[in-house]
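Report of the visiting student (M.T.), summer placement. My assignment was to run the structure pipeline on a short list of targets and document each run. The first record concerns Nuclear nucleic acid-binding protein C1D.
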Amino acid sequence: MYPTAGGFIRTSSAPIIHPTMAEQHLANVTSALGAIEEYLAPLTKASVDELTKNAAPIEKAKLQVGLAYSVNALLYILLKTQGASSKDLRQTQVKQELDRVKGFVQKIKYSEEMAKGPQVKVDAEAAGRFINHALSSDQVYVKALNERKAEEKTDVEETKTEEKASKASKKTKKAPTTSTSAKPAKKQRKH
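After the run finished, the structure tokens were exported:
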């Protein structure tokens, strides 16, 4: 609502708030603005150049982006408190600027990650292939590799013959044995 000579003009479709709730909201806004003023006090006492004189480049970038975000956020809040609609061109430009500043925040985070150095991870399978290929021209290596393959092959063959032998011994144990002392089975009569 804007005051005019003839009364108030309503500029938004926001519901009208009860006076006691309005006082409570106003007190909350006042305390929040006090906190913002306290937070920004060091920046208002000295110039940005003085604050960043001995700072690292990444710290300078953080300060610049933080200031840009703070100014745009405060402008957005000002427009909202004045009842600006979301279709208002100024508010839309403020939102675009806030999004642009958020992009810079992401770039700063990315550059900090890159400053930590690359995360090295060894691909063991690929390293094994490189080593085998490099050593394949070495005759001692080739001979040792062939011997190992031959040993593995004989181990596999021995395992197969042992399995066959154990299966054959199990079959002979399961076969029924005939005893000469056993009495012949009686035939049952059918009635």
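The mean pLDDT is 78. Residues 2-115 form one domain. I thank the supervising group for their guidance throughout the placement.
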